[in-house]
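User: Please predict structures.

Assistant: First:
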Amino acid sequence: MGVPMAPGRLPFLGHSVAMLRGRQRFTSSLRDHGDVVRVDLGPMTTYFVTTPQLVHQVLVTDGPRFSKGAMFDKFRPYVGNGLVLSDGAFHLRQRRMVQPAFHRDRIAHYAETMQRAATALTTSWTPGEVRVVEDDMQALAVTVVGEALFSTELGQRAIAEVRRSVFVVIKQGMVRALSPSFVEKLPLPGNREFDRAIARMRAIVLDVIASRRAEGVADHGDLLSMLLLAQDEAGDGMTDQQTYDEVLTLLTAGIETTALALAWAFHEVARHPDVERRLVAEFDEVLDGRPATFADVPRLKYAAAVVNEVLRVYPLWILMRRAVEPVDLGGVRLPVGAEVIVSPHALHHDPASFPDPHRFDPDRWLSPSADVPRGAYIPFAAGARQCLGNVFAQTEVVITLATVLSKWRLVPVPGKPVRTKFTSTAYPSGLLMTAVPR
C-alpha cells in the first residue's frame, strides 16, 4: 500500500512565531491526506500518524515495538539517559525504580509544598500591582520541583542553580532538537549559554548526590532520597550518573509543563469570566476558606476540567518514535528504523474528537457524553512511556489555582495583549496581569 506524501515539506530550521504557527497548521492539515502521511524533514523521511486509533497503537498497543525517535537522539548527549530518553530494558528498570517516588502518599506530601509555595508567592503581591504572570509561574514551578527534589539545606544551592539555568536548558535544548545538527556546533550565543547552563547544573547536582552518599543515604522525604534508595530486582541501585540523569529529567519535564499550564490557565480564566466565577464558587464550597490539600483535589471537579482543557489547548507540538521492528500501521508496512511523528497539538484540535476545538470549554470534560477516543488526548503521552509526573503536575496546577483565586483576581492589563513564543509548545510572553484582592 502506498503512503500519501504531504503537499510540501516541514523544515526544522527557523523559529519565528509565523513559521511555527505555520507548522501547527501544516501538521493539523495532514489528517486530510490520510491516516499515515509521509513527511520530509529535510533529508529525513518520516511517517506522520493522524488518527487517534493509530496513535494509540504507536504509543500503547505496539509501544514496545518503538523506541524514542530522532528528535530525542539529539538531547541525549546533553541531558543524559533519563526516563524521557531511555529505551528498552534499561527504561523499564529505571521506571520501576523511579515510580515509588510518585506514589499517592508521596504526592500528598509534595502537595503541602505546592500550597506553601503558592501562598508565599501571593503573599508577596500588593493590591493593584502588575505581575508578569509567566515569570511568577516559572518561579513557582522551580520552587515546587526544587523543594520536592532537594529538601535539605545543601539542596538549596542546587535550587538556586536550577532557577538560574533550567529554562536556558529547556528552551535552547529544544532549539537544538528542532534544528539541523550543524547548528549546535556554531559559536552562537544560544549555544554557548546552553553549554554553560548544562555544565553548571551538572556540577551542582552531582555535588549534592556525592554529599548525600557521604552522609549515608536516608529518606529525607524528597525525590532525591527515593532515587538514591531505589533498587532494581537484582538489588542494585543507580549510579551517580543515572541518578543525575533522572534528576535532570524531573527538573526539565516537571518545571516546564506546570509553569506553562499555570500561566495559560490564568490567561484563559481571565478571558472567560464565567469560568472564573464557577472556579471560585467551587473553591469556596469545597475549601470554605482553608488551604487546599491533596485530599481536596478529587472533589474539585470543575477545576480538574479547567486543567484538562488547558492541557488540551496548549500541548506539545510533536512527539517522535522509531520502529525497532517491522510494524503494520493502518495498512502501511513500516520497516525497522522508520521515524514516526505524532502531534498532540493536531490531535487535541481535531474537530472529530473535540467539537469546536479552538473554543476554550471546560464543560466538554464534564458532559456525560464526553467520550474522548483513545489516543485523541495525550498531554502526558501514553502507555509505558506516559509521564510518571502527570498526577504531580495536575495536582500542582489545581492547588495553585485554588490558592491564588481564593484570594486574588488576576486582571489583564488593557492594551497589553499576551504574545506567544514557540519552541516545542506555546510559551506566553508578556502576560501582564493586575493583582486585585478578591
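Second:
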Amino acid sequence: MPHIDYYFTTVSPYAYLVGTRLEEIAQRRGVTVTYKPFDLVSAFPRTGGVPLPERHPARVEYRAEELPRQARKLGMEFNLKPAHWPVNPAPSAYAIIAAQKAGGGDVGLLVQKLMAACWVEERDISQDEVIKDCLAASDFDPSLADSGLLAGAEIYSQNLEEAVSKGVFGSPFFIVDTGQKFFGQDRLEDLDAHLAGNL
C-alpha cells in the first residue's frame, strides 16, 4: 500500500490550511499516512530557513496577504494574528505522537483540532487542558497528554533528525514512498495526481 510521511509543525498556518484534504486524498487513493510533527525552528538553520521575525519585510508583508487569501480560497476560517502565537509546539506534538502510537482515535482529526484551536479559536495549544480537549474530541484518551510525554519527546527529536536528513525544510511537507517530495498546502493537488499515476 502506498504511504505518505507527513512532516509538519502544529504552529504552522500553512499546515493548518491543509485542513481535511490530506485525509481525503489518502482515502481516495488507498494510502496510509504517518504524522511526523517536528521542530521546524530548529530545522531552519540547518536547511536554509529563517524564522518569521528575521525575514525581510517584503516576505512578511507577502505572507500577511497570502495566508488570508488562501484561507478564503479554501473556505476556512483563519486569524492571521492569533492571541497565542508563537507558542511552544512541543506539547501538542507529543500528544499527536502518543495518540498515533496508541491508536483507536482519528489522528488526522486531532491534528486539525489542534491547529484550529490555534488559528481560529484563540486557544493556547501548549496548555494541557486545550490538548486534552482536542484528544477527547478526536476519540483519544485525554490522559495521553500526560502518559505520552517521554516517548513523545524522544520521537519528536527523532522526527527532526529524520526530516533534515530527508531534505524537509518547511511545513507542511509530504514524502511519498516513491521518494517524491511535495512542499506546501498548495501542492496537495500535485500529490493527489502523483498518487493517481498522472504526475
